[in-house]
Amino acid sequence: MIMQNKLVSYQPITDVQCHLVGIDLVVDKRENATDNISESVISALHPFLCLETAGLFANHQVFVKVDEQFLMADALTLLPKTQVVLTLVRCDVVSEDLINRCSVLADMGYSLALDDWADKDPRLPLLAYAKFVRINLEHGLQSISDVLVSSTANLIAVETNCLEQRECSENIGVNLYQGYYYLDVRPDATKSLPLSVHVILEVIAELNSDGSDAALERFFRENPVLSVQMLRMVNSAAIGAGREVSSIRHAIMILGRGQMIRWLQVMLYTQRDTANVPTMLMYTALWRAKLMELMSTQCNHHGSTVHHDAVFMTGMLSLADVLLNDSMNSVVAKMSLATSIRDALLNRSGVAGSLLALVEFLELAKFADVEKHASVLGTTIEVIMACQNEALIWVDQIASSLDI
């Protein structure tokens, strides 16, 4: 595991179709506001640059905040120009040297962004070299000047955490969004989710209640699409390519119940449907589940596989209410869940509940709350960051295998 001693929140940047296009690195600066920003940049980017994680989110750009001093340094030319977006923080004065430097970097192929754009922004001379401009709607729409709208830069609305903010920004020409507005998206009430989603819920309940193999086989026989997906999973590299499968029951035996229930939880979020459920739900649920599971192995709490599976399930199901457009109480009641999972999902209680609360605060860059829960769980910043980096690698691999 890669060890980092500073908390970093990896926040999604999505397009108008709610597809992931980038990751915004938000670094905890509460106690180190006077530190050289270079240290924060290198620390935040380390997981994307080191050999252990080569290729991590290679198809997505990584946004990191930098100042003028960092932009002027020769060291930044070591950063991969196709993946890293250098986001220049606000400054009061724009020197000729800075203008020339931005021009050179743009010619070299580096992507530049201007952070926290304001009305009458002194960085206007740099707009010609910026590929992205980040705006905060809370500062008022006056910052969206005609010159900004008519520029070639892509506009990113930051801290877009509800549908109202998303719709407001889209109406004024914004085409990228940083934030968790998609957790407000619910399936279209006029369109039903595919049958397989409801079948998956039934199978999960059957597995949780120790149902027989014959009962599980019946579910798959009656749902050929789900059967095909399971057979693809059995034949994937993750399970063992080249294994001959003689029947549905044989496939169930190869997968095993523990592997099957995890696969079904992933399938909940990946069904192709017409109800406008954003794929970012899958990314977030996968990330939560794997991060919580990895952290549970480090927190010295009940070191059994059963416990880690329960923690993983808690993370995966933490967005099931959004997916199914239902209350969490109703969702929990349908799946025969263990008491520890129910309490975690409904009350954020127990070890699984504390882990879920911690990852939710980490998503929102509420670092003080992250540290409070870390203290309760008996873990450290280094462990949290190492687990988060490993979870990101796993999520990227799963998403790639599902072609999402």
UniProtKB/TrEMBL annotation:
Q: Where is the HDOD domain?
A: 193-383
Give the InterPro entries listed for this entry: dGMP_Pdiesterase_EAL/HD-GYP, EAL_sf, HDOD, RNase_Y/CdgJ
**Protein name in UniProt:** HDOD domain-containing protein
Query: From which organism does this entry originate?
Result: Methylotenera oryzisoli
